[in-house]
What we know:
- Strand 1, helix 1 (12-23) and strand 2 (27-32) form a beta-alpha-beta unit.
- The model has no long low-confidence stretch (mean pLDDT 96).
- 40% of the residues lie in helices and 18% in strands.
- The protein is of the alpha/beta class.
- The strands form 3 sheets. Strands 3-2-1-4-5-6-10 form a 7-stranded parallel sheet, with helices on both faces.
- The chain has a domain at 3-178 and 222-244: Rossmann fold (3-Layer(aba) Sandwich).
- Helix 2 (54-61) packs across helix 4.
- The termini are far apart.
- The site of nicotinamide-adenine-dinucleotide has 26 residues, from helix 1, helix 4, strand 5 and strand 7.
- Nicotinamide-adenine-dinucleotide is lined by residues 8, 10-14, 32-34, 50-52, 74-78, 94, 98, 117, 119, 174, 176-177, 183, 190.
Amino acid sequence: MKRALVCGAGGFIAGHLVRRLQREGYWVRGVDIKQHEWSPNAADEFIQLDLREAENCRKALALPGVAFDEVYQLAADMGGMGFIHSAECEIMHNSALINIHMIHNATEIGVPRYFFSSSVCVYRDMQPGEREMTEAEAIPAHPDNEYGWEKLYAERIAEAYSRNRGIQVRIARFQNCYGPEGTWRGGREKAPAAICRKVAEAEDGGTIEVWGDGSAVRSYTYVDDMVDGIYRLMQSDMQGAVNIGCLEYVTVDELVKTVIEASGKEIHMKHVAGPVGVQSRNFSNERIYSLGWKAQHYLKDGIGHTYPWVEQQVLKAQARKVLPKTVL
Length: 328
Ligand code: NAD
């Protein structure tokens, strides 16, 4: 039986990854600074640790007499655009420490294979209609935000350990990922979850606020597809960074309309000033396609699974405000 360590297992994508690895027959240890809110007992073993500390990375990696076969590093101090633009120091400090200590200690302890979750935020801004960018075109680098710069540094440190110290490294650059169990409130939520929440909270016939003018172009990848991409990449011998994303590109307004349609309500949009990020995205997925991966969920399907989940959380939260604790 293969043994995997999943860092960030208290979070969204890694929480889904834990369950996928178990279905593939792995024994999985999850590690995170916090418990998973919805599936706290999913991993075979879960350890709560702050991975900014080198000593805690060593504890997470320790197994009696053997090394983990695979380490998946998805722990990061991260969130949607609102968080990315307001927490530059936290991102540059906390995520960098986690990435420096994890790759160093995984190498020292003899882990053969290491996955790192990077982001398409490493790329420069694009204009609508520009041709697809390949992974190599992230350099010369001009990311739009500090989160992208930190990811680029973390990619390079992982690759340096791979070149000089022999650990096999796989790096995925995720497009926006969404789905059930993603952060949906509190300031770290990303656009799909934030819009699902706003629509779920709105009265039929009401209006929701949308940051920016609604024209920014993005691709959104459903979490099951993302996890499948991670798994296939990790099993492959593909070196260098690999984009993983759905080929369907939509504007923010189209995303909002898809959510409104899933809700069955009539909701109006009001565009307001807010952090939007880059204007456009368009990336080549040829590398991940060559591993037999293709997104199986278009936005309408994925939102069809995600909206009801967010709506359920909104209803539960509203009920908690109204009913005394003893009733719930
Ligand atoms: P998430 O915030 O749900 O998960 C990240 C987890 O890391 C959280 O559970 C958090 O508690 C944990 N963490 C933070 N600081 C820690 C620390 N000091 N010690 C231990 N754990 C710590 O985010 P996610 O959406 O699941 O993202 C997973 C990875 O994928 C991240 O590296 C993120 O940057 C990357 N990514 C995500 C997206 C997306 O759209 N969700 C897009 C591109 C890249």
